[in-house]
Amino acid sequence: MIPAVDLLIDRLNGLLPRVAIVLGSGLGGLVDEVEDAIHIPYDELPGFPEGGVSGHAKQLVAGNFAGIPVIMLAGRVHYYEKGDASAMRLPLEVLAALGVTTLILTNAAGSLREDMPPGSVMQITDHINFSGFNPLIGEPSDARFVGMTQAYDADLMQAMRQAAIDEDIALSSGVYMWFSGPSFETPAEIRMARTLGADAVGMSTVPEVILARFLGLKVAAASVITNYGAGMTGAELSHDETKDMAPIGGQRLAAILKRMLTQF
Fold this sequence. Notes:
Rossmann fold, about 30% helix, purine-nucleoside phosphorylase activity, PUNP, Nucleoside_phosphorylase_sf
């Protein structure tokens, strides 16, 4: 048994969440809406990573949200922090061991489409692992050969779309391309990404999708659009812009998720 699992079983007091949400930039406030919330800092969970990105909390929050028991991971660790694509493996293994079957991933991303401005929300329907890194490198079993044809669950995607309709919130959809970061993309890289069929770019999520599918979890994901890609407006990109714009789209995505979960 993973030590963090034993600790969480004890701390959750019989709560049995089947849904977990990884909160990206702009969604940290969602933990305040969890009823009967149990807050556990990552540094109290053996093996949990200590991400160092400003604007990201570092805690697991469990309780009731939108009428169902959930676990929220407020903060993630990124590949670019220590050069480890599998950095989120143990937290996701812990979720699976606790009985979680559905993982909803969120992130902040740059738009490659004029019709998807900052403040928009994009449902991720597929991804391109442009970084070339994979969290399953070194996994000794044949389970490492994970099929990714249906990486994003069709039923969950439909539930998210219906929730957006019910909330009267525009929800775009598209392909997310993972760059390793931490530097932002160049204008040439953005032109390449658009040519290859990407609709948004970012520095997270894809390793977690791969790990989740490896662990047998169903996955849905969405991006809060915080900026246009490099070269599209002529302005330089910055992490401050991400932090400033994320709450705008974050409020919209939060409303979609709350409505979506009422369907579970």
